[in-house]
Fold this sequence. Notes:
three-stranded antiparallel β-sheet, elongated, 49% strand, 3 strands, mainly beta
Amino acid sequence: MGGNDYRAPGLGSPGLPADYWLAKSSDGGRTWSATRLAGSFDLTASKAG
């Protein structure tokens, strides 16, 4: 089981800074581990749709 997670690394930066994380569980969701995949980047610069 896994999921995506965007986290703000801190306040005071221009735009909308975020880091991209992968959260995963191997026991059905009882415990989780997180791995940072990318960051920091500005979410306002991303394009949707």
